[in-house]
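Why run this: before we spend reagent on co-expression, it is cheaper to look at a predicted model of the complex and decide which construct boundaries make sense. The entries below are exactly what would go into the expression plan.
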Amino acid sequence: MTIKRGLFVGRFQPPHLGHCEAITKLLKEMDEVVIVIGSSQFSHELSNPFTTGERMTMVKKVLDEMGVDPRRCHIVPVPDVETHSIWVSLVRTYAPSFDVVYSNEPLTRRLFEEAGLTVRNVPFHQRELYSATEVRRRMLAGERWRDLVMKSVADYVESIDGVGRLRALTRTDKAS
Amino acid sequence: MTIKRGLFVGRFQPPHLGHCEAITKLLKEMDEVVIVIGSSQFSHELSNPFTTGERMTMVKKVLDEMGVDPRRCHIVPVPDVETHSIWVSLVRTYAPSFDVVYSNEPLTRRLFEEAGLTVRNVPFHQRELYSATEVRRRMLAGERWRDLVMKSVADYVESIDGVGRLRALTRTDKAS
Amino acid sequence: MTIKRGLFVGRFQPPHLGHCEAITKLLKEMDEVVIVIGSSQFSHELSNPFTTGERMTMVKKVLDEMGVDPRRCHIVPVPDVETHSIWVSLVRTYAPSFDVVYSNEPLTRRLFEEAGLTVRNVPFHQRELYSATEVRRRMLAGERWRDLVMKSVADYVESIDGVGRLRALTRTDKAS
Amino acid sequence: MTIKRGLFVGRFQPPHLGHCEAITKLLKEMDEVVIVIGSSQFSHELSNPFTTGERMTMVKKVLDEMGVDPRRCHIVPVPDVETHSIWVSLVRTYAPSFDVVYSNEPLTRRLFEEAGLTVRNVPFHQRELYSATEVRRRMLAGERWRDLVMKSVADYVESIDGVGRLRALTRTDKAS
Amino acid sequence: MTIKRGLFVGRFQPPHLGHCEAITKLLKEMDEVVIVIGSSQFSHELSNPFTTGERMTMVKKVLDEMGVDPRRCHIVPVPDVETHSIWVSLVRTYAPSFDVVYSNEPLTRRLFEEAGLTVRNVPFHQRELYSATEVRRRMLAGERWRDLVMKSVADYVESIDGVGRLRALTRTDKAS
Amino acid sequence: MTIKRGLFVGRFQPPHLGHCEAITKLLKEMDEVVIVIGSSQFSHELSNPFTTGERMTMVKKVLDEMGVDPRRCHIVPVPDVETHSIWVSLVRTYAPSFDVVYSNEPLTRRLFEEAGLTVRNVPFHQRELYSATEVRRRMLAGERWRDLVMKSVADYVESIDGVGRLRALTRTDKAS
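The model came back. Tokens follow.
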């Protein structure tokens, strides 16, 4: 009996309730999930404030708070590469083998499809609300961002002064 | 008797009738032409949809359809580098030796001029019309893009579903 | 109450019984262990035959077979960099935060010590026997390599024809 | 008696009177200054027109024209890296050791602070006026840019036709 | 009717009579051949003395001297990458599509086989004699190297003082 | 009246009395010297134990102890690149402009000569004795290495425990 693995790609800047919903869904359809922390090389940017180590820590906390069996989950950082056409090959090198890709991102879907893989949609509810972009926007605006993430993530972000870092990033003007 | 070679730089995303006109002109002035496929590392981007292998295939088809003697043409992929000032040196490493550079692109011209090379203009007719940007715009808008490229290029783009790929790229939103 | 994490660096080409002993020891002294899969970019080399994805799969199987609580373990691939002096910084970016480094490797120890971190020895028994070098040597010689690794690792290596790959690598002669 | 060194980061595209004021201030507070030429890999871009060699030449001329003792100054090119969180480590590898960082740039400040270093502000007068952005804007507009830089810098920029290069860069349209 | 393409990988340092024999054979079995100039980034090394541009020039001369129809040949430089497992993906990005791989090199064969491609042997006669290693050895020893390559290659190597360069490389001692 | 600059390339692992002799000679023939710290990206290796920052510090101390006017000297770190043929271009980007290259290293000489530059020999006395290889050998063997370097270099190496680092590097066995 072989294990069926689904691949789920996100940047997790930070992980939010939409990610949790997606992971729950995948674990109903598949035996195991490979969670790819994409764009892993970036941090300290407005749209990528957290390091891979911080994102891995948060994803682990999320799985724990959700009560998911950690043996069913693989967390794999994968960097972006400037040659998009080799990115699928990089994922295959860095990740345990997988059978199905779950993604709504058109380029990600296209790249896996061109490589001959099966790609499925991830049905998110309220996609505008549960998005990392909205979480970061609220962090900067001083609005209620904690409602969009799990408690363990919110606590962790505060323990590393994540909002302070994000605010410092808005004031940067590297091109002067 | 030494052979005179002209260097012609393009991205060929995809090759269009303007490129054909330029190559024809070069082959009147020079014995051989070195066709540099620039920005070679990029693919699956809105302004760089095709891989180097696909672009090389299309350029070969163009030369064939034009009836050009292939022994007079060298096709050389060259990646962009973040340090512009070493790019000329990279071209010289990757390409057969050349005598004159043909380019209208101001940065390309400047870099070759600072390196002490002779740079000439390429007289294009209807530059706004015969441009890869216009070809890609028409592809996305569902307009008559086939008129701007050679028949063999149009057929090839369709055989690899190039328009489908370009449309997938417009829907991508990597920064969420 | 804060969690104490120990960092353990290996290449896991493949994971062997010495690694298991080390992980067991760390988990007695620390709350959690960060297992760094070092030299993560390499594969299909005589001393690095397995990809990161394969190594991550094997380390997970080892933890499972040992009955270790997976919530106490973090698996983090980290590539080598040509500038050794920035490698510690890379580990810190890619891994969850950690308090103590466990390593017997003199360069690894030196780099972490120069960065001001606490470094401890890992007491291995029979270091010559339980080493990945010895496992690979036996694989190539047709000797009893399965005795040096956990059963789940041995089964996995066979399922991907790891010994066949290693033998192909011995016959390579790239410099001709 | 140990020497106290202050680190000062700039791109020096080109060095202007604001930089001079900052260096003067640092040399009052510290024994020596380490001048980091940041984003060292870039040149021939609109906001990075000059190579590192050219910028190093100009900074040396500035120190000479200011009458600063060159033994108190270290000039160190440091490239940008896509992983911001390792950049501080890169500076430490490339530069002589330093005690205090002087910077007004929010991201630079944040990165050094997260690494546990002391960061101080650089009080600039008329920051809008004495900026490299304003110098380059005036160069392109044909306005009085020489007033914003030291005479030796102005003469050097003219000797290498820096304004001509900058103008070539405005006309470039690489994405066609 | 689709065209059948065979892929042939070499480093061509320099192209020799064994390469010619292999290309002749491929063109009997396939419609077209994709000639990969491997390890394309290297030059000025004892085992990689020639640049990619020089090697491309020589391969073109060989095809011409052999009287091969150049429309049936594609010449594609591909660099080595440190992650062997993504190299096949790189070849696919840089080369026109291909159906069969011809190679005797065990690692090259293994990588293509693991990617699911058909790999065939290239029957060379006198492999020890017709090898680039032997050509370079003779060049350095002052022996009859011209016998092992085509006349056009021998003439070209002399025109760029290739033997002089190779000799300079033997005297280098970079590690002092 | 234009300034004449000579380029001098070394790795300075560490700077020794042979380097001092060479710099003295150059400053007799040229107005200024550009001292390239080559292989700048390496550190913590047996043949490259010191970081660029440490090497830059030592070279500055040497110039100071020799009583050389620092305005006549430029210190420029330049990394090795895997494509040797573009290295000269990299030096030209990173260094102030120069007129003559001084080097005894055959590959360095060849690369500059192929780029059309004037290259001169550096007459060293007792080249076997005054070499960084010999200094490092003595450090490891516990022999009198201080005799081969300037006092300020010897004191600096001791202040950073350079010999201790070198010894740690000999014990490393990364390939296990």
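The domain at 5-170 of chain A is CATH 3.40.50.620 (Rossmann fold). The two ends of chain A are 60 Å apart (CA to CA). Bring this page to Monday's planning discussion.
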